[in-house]
Amino acid sequence: MEHEQCEFGMVGLGVMGSNFLMNVADSGFTAVGYDKDPKKAQALNDASGGKIDGVTTIDEFLSRLATPRKIMMLVPAGSIVDAVIDELMPHLEPGDILIDGGNSYFKDTDRRTEKLEKENLRYIGIGVSGGEEGARHGPSLMPGGSKEAYEIVRPMMEAAAAKVNGEPCVTYLGSKSAGHFVKMVHNGIEYGIMQLTAEVYDFMKRGMKLSNDDIQRLFAEWNEGELQSFLIEITANIFKQPDDKGDGLLVDKILDKAKQKGTGKWTSQVAMDLGIPIPTIDVSVTMRFLSALKEERVEACKDLDLGDLDVAEDRLNTEKELEHALYFAIAITYAQGLALLEAASEEFDYGLNLEDVARIWRGGCIIRATFLENIMQAYRNRPDLPNLILDESLAKIMKERHAATRKVVQLGVEQGIPVPAMASSLTYFDAYRSQRLPSNLTQAQRDYFGAHTYERTDEPGIFHTEWNQS
């Protein structure tokens, strides 16, 4: 039986792959899916109502695709991506386009790009954010790599992407691994916002002794205002979910050990390599590691118990201060991530436009928020903005909100409630706005014990002193 030549193919028919493929098909493009697992191929056939064929052999898959073939992979990052590429390459023809839609490490994307280009094949690394719901109904898409190849698949990507005010949340970001790098930093910012939200919850629960209903109410109210975002919205929803295996809410029964897939850690590691400070994101990664030490924490709770200290503050004032502090710290987290993107763009020659990055993050992705409109405007007003918090309107907000942040951090410290991400955001703000830091002493120490030299404030040059060690 003759089949029509399809415009788009998907390798990997798990939840993400199947949902994205059905999204593309619903957008008016013919599509075919490939997975070695017959059950997954059949599940696609069933879910799409026979609109999309799921096949189980590479030969049938490739024979069903029109040339140049446009193939997207949505498989777990790492060696599996290389295995799929090695399986496909002998069957591909010059000009074919291969797209990696997983959370691949950006250096792996650079390596794969170089490998495929030697065979006259075109490669796109594309960050996909939004989970299974986003994949099905509109994710944020972050493509980088061959611009020529992207222009060919652009109609499909724009049709499948989330829309904000009619604009698709996708655009070509830059060369090589730009797309996967932007997705990595997106996830780093996500780590920061999630940790900040968790700290505020902990402060409400243990410090203010608020009920789950009160916590739900506050997050729901905040989501109606300037903190409106996907993560605040789902947090409010979480505090309405009953435990289907017992009494109370499900959130209270979930073990307090946070897991991760590595993108937050990568963000911190690359920032260290590039010399860009992102302390809020760094400490958010660290807190996931610390949360995994459950058994040790249980023991320490007994041995290091400090008693129970209440917040001796007016509750309504403290609620408003929490809201302002959370806004302040989230803004700082975005600023850190965007500063890293700016440095990486220069170091790796990506050619990123940060206004475009903010624009495509407004819909579909996990860190979508009303605040991204402010970020877009900031980079539209000043494309060379060295740091987001130097934007005139945002700087005004930072100056208005820092006092509330100090109060929340102070109360947390006084009660022994950990607020490391909140405190790191405040420290970053204070250090960044300091005309003089104590690093002159650090340089003196380095020169003292290691003859590492130093610079002076009153004349140019490099200096070393034979320090008096008596």
Q: What is the strand and helix layout of this fold?
A:
Elements: E1 8-11, H1 15-26, E2 31-34, H2 38-47, E3 53-55, H3 58-63, E4 70-73, H4 79-88, E5 97-100, H5 106-117, E6 122-129, H6 131-137, E7 140-145, H7 147-160, E8 163-164, E9 167-168, H8 178-207, H9 212-222, H10 230-238, H11 263-274, H12 279-291, H13 294-303, H14 315-348, H15 354-360, H16 371-381, H17 392-415, H18 420-432, H19 439-450
Parallel strand pairs: 1-2, 1-4, 2-3, 4-5, 5-6
Antiparallel strand pairs: 6-7, 8-9
Keywords:
single chain; 470 residues; alpha/beta; Rossmann fold; 7-stranded mixed β-sheet; two-stranded antiparallel sheet; 19 helices; globular
Structural class: alpha/beta
Q: Write the CATH architecture name of the largest domain.
A: Orthogonal Bundle
Please give the domain count: 3
- Low-confidence segments: none
Largest sheet, strands/sense/barrel:
7 strands, mixed
CATH class of the largest domain: Mainly Alpha
Mean pLDDT: 94
- How large is the count of helical segments? 19
Please estimate the helix content: 40-55%
> What's the name of the CATH homologous superfamily of the largest domain?
N-(1-d-carboxylethyl)-l-norvaline Dehydrogenase, domain 2
The Rg value, from CA coordinates, equals 25 Å
Order of helices and strands: EHEHEHEHEHEHEHEEHHHHHHHHHHHH
Question: Which geometry do the CA atoms define?
Answer: globular
Sheet with the most strands: spatial strand order = 3-2-1-4-5-6-7
CA distance, first residue to last residue: 93 Å
CATH topology of the largest domain: N-(1-d-carboxylethyl)-l-norvaline Dehydrogenase, domain 2
Percentage beta strand: 5-15%
Number of extended strands? 9
